[in-house]
Amino acid sequence: MNLKELKELIDIINGTEISEIELEKSGTRVRIKKGVEAPQFVTRPEMVHPVMSAAPVVAPAAGAEAEAKQDNLVTVNSMIVGTFYRSPSPDAKPYVELNDVVKKGQVLCLVEAMKLMNEIESDIDGKIVEILVRDAQPVQYGQPLFRIEPM
Prior knowledge:
CATH 2.40.50.100, four-stranded antiparallel β-sheet, single chain, alpha+beta
């Protein structure tokens, strides 16, 4: 099968509802698949945490003083792709709240990935000044979750 024949075959398939075809000619096998299937995700109802707020909880900023404090803040990022949870279960209180003082190694939240709950811990002693993600929100690797003012 030459390039011209392959292009003609692709044009024919694009004009139809056929999504996949596989041919063999003269010992050469060609498989053409139209479109890309998106991954399907299914969540069991008992695994879903209720969304606690419609927007991220953010500390109020006040002028130049707040800007000066922002310079030394430490950002805690997600180490995995998954779903962010502020508490260990839907009816439990969150691990941390805005303005809480935390210690190094203290659990800040959970990120669920592949049905495993992964604890995200603080790397420093400090005060939570920003919570950047809503409960039950999907997060990406490296996405900022919290901002902590070192103490």
